[in-house]
Prior knowledge:
disordered N terminus; 13 helices; mainly alpha; two-stranded parallel sheet; elongated; 2 domains; single chain; two-stranded antiparallel sheet
Amino acid sequence: MPTEVQFLSTAQLLLTTLVVKLAIIAVLATMLVRFQQFRRILLTEQRAWRERLVFAFMLGIPLVGGVAARLLLNYNAADFLLAGPFLAGLLAGPYAGAIVGTLLGSPALIGGEVGAMPFAVGCGFAGGGIREVCPKEAIWHLSPLFFTDLHRHAWQVVSRFKVDWLLLLAAAPVGLELIRQGVGLRFGTNAIFFYQPDSLLMAALIALSTVLSVAIPIKIWNTARIEHRLQEQDTLLMEARVDALANQINPHFLFNTLTSISSLIRSQPETARTLILKLSTMLRRMLRTQEHFVTLREELKSIDEYLDIESIRFGPTLVIEKEISEDSLDLVVPNMILQPLIENSIKHGIEKKVGGGRIVIR
Length: 362
């Protein structure tokens, strides 16, 4: 009778399972962060109940499939009975962690693992409890490479008698894994599923994979948070530059216009009155417009108001020509971007000429 060929030893099979497990959680975390609603929840630390529920179900439902795959297909790499609830509690609070624990524990309980649901719910509350006492930014600092600085954090605890949150965040999943191992060894796999190591090295790798199952999603999601913050800073910087540009333009323009009005009041009162009305119309529009970016059509409209004022100042010696494609009128440009160009062309070009000049906008 032919013997069954085993390609991998027990240790090799377990190691392969742990590696695949980390790959699965990394892929899931990457997929979830692509959803706009999930990303928006990650960006806010103070979350409403609805947001916590959405987070719990968006994370929990895919993980339920992993538990079901283990029970039905004997595919152990997709089981996150510990890491899933703990991660949810750590990021969204104890009740979100308990909800994910209930979701993941339900199929295991149906499969006869009576200790799975209490353990999973407990993991959710454990993560949520740490969240309540831990600085929120410290949670986001948990990295898959935490072990490279483990000695430094341990020394800080010993030398300063101070709680090191990163060390606590890494130690908590290890402690929960030890509890699962203890329950499994005492009551068997009928009580709860657990990876059975055949050496201390494999036990250490199981504990490490548990921590990494929590740290990898946090790292991926924190990267998305940082990218969003950088985009916000770029936007704020652009808005600040536009504001600075507008603040530089307005006093210079007002000075020139008011000087023209003062010179026209005695000699040409009607022209001065028209100039004041046009200036007030332009200033009213500028005060009402809070947008930093406008369409080219709107920008040209404001330029027309500005040129109307300058045309009164210079009279027929100032000729304005426009060569603008209709297709470009709906393009978005920074507000007040054209006025300094036209103002400088008048100030440094036409204003110094006796016979005036021509401005072409194209």
